[in-house]
Amino acid sequence: MSAQSVDQLAGNLQIVSATSFYRLTEAEFGMPGLVAIESVGPFVELASVGPFITIHDSFLDPGLGIGHHPHRGNERLFYILRGEIRHDDALNGIQGVMNEGDLARLTEGEIGMLHREWNGRDDVRTHAFILVYTPDTEPPIERASFAALREHEVPRRAEARGVETLELIGGHSRFAANNSAITTFFDSTLDEAAEIELEMPADEGLILYPLDGAVRVSTDADGSRLLRGSSQMHPEGPDELAIVWSDAAGRTLRLSAEDGGARLLRIGFARRDDDLVVHQPWRRSA
User: Fold this and answer.
1) What total number of domains does the chain contain?
2) For site-directed labelling of 275, which of 7, 44, 134, 166 has its Cα 20 to 30 A away?
3) Structural domain of 184
């Protein structure tokens, strides 16, 4: 991986900059009205991070979306940050609606699905954060399914002074991914100068994805870096994301908002054999 895109500090804090993201548009989707900022996946240097094989920050124009196409074997989490997305799986006769604030789980199953997703609103550009991974359940999941944690069901807590956290996946949420490595998925809003001190469990990875404002990430031994939620390179995406790794002793991590308030997503996962996989040699896949 090029030094320009990832700055590694003592092996436990990695910064992935917007220079290594890819902006997918009509050329890749085959239809207008869709934009996805890919930070992990086939179009960028990072082939996978922990269990995640694709991470998209996605936008759908009013009334538009992607037509029916096949998938099998994997599972997707759709977190709807704004607007709505409608889902239709023609193969399995499954339909669903994902509203603002919902976290939806689309399991493809071994049989697979033939699905389409589109923005059902005519007045709002939908914004969705999408995680793709492979289930590790035994026995394997045979048939496709759709499930959603609705906005009013998401546990909310004051994690620290000036910090509100939505616990989409975690100890207080009823929702889970069908992959045992995925431990947490939080959406945190920090007031200006607010700070969170986190004790990371042993042998865990944590993805920090800023949505708005600026958040300083400080580790216990290796200094700090500033993550910004806006980028000149990709207008819809952040300027960088961070991946923090803990070892057998765990790790202390501090997050603080600078230059006003901030909002960021935190996705935790158990470390396994392949924590981070880079395309070798790196090339942008078609």
Assistant:
1) 1
2) 166
3) 6-276
Cβ(149)–Cβ(168) under 8 Å? Answer: yes
Provide the strand spans (E) within 4-154.
6-9, 13-17, 22-24, 34-40, 46-49, 52-60, 65-71, 75-82, 84-89, 94-99, 103-107, 113-118, 126-133, 145-149
Strand partners of residue 242: 15, 208
Statement: the pTM of the whole predicted model exceeds 0.85: yes
Q: Which two three-digit tokens encode residue 53?
A: 């094989």
Q: Which residues of 22-37 are buried (b: 16+ CB within 10 A; e: fewer)?
A: bbbeeeebeeebbbbb
Whether 165 maps to a domain, the answer reads: yes
Q: Which residues contact 148 (CB under 8 A, 6 or more apart)?
A: 96, 98, 102, 103, 104, 105
Burial 70-109 (b: 16+ CB within 10 A, else e): ebeebbbbbbbbebbbbbbbebbebebebebbbbbbbbbb
Q: Read off the CATH number of the domain in which 24 is found.
A: 2.60.120.10
Domain contains 282: no
Distance CA 70, CA 234 (A): 28
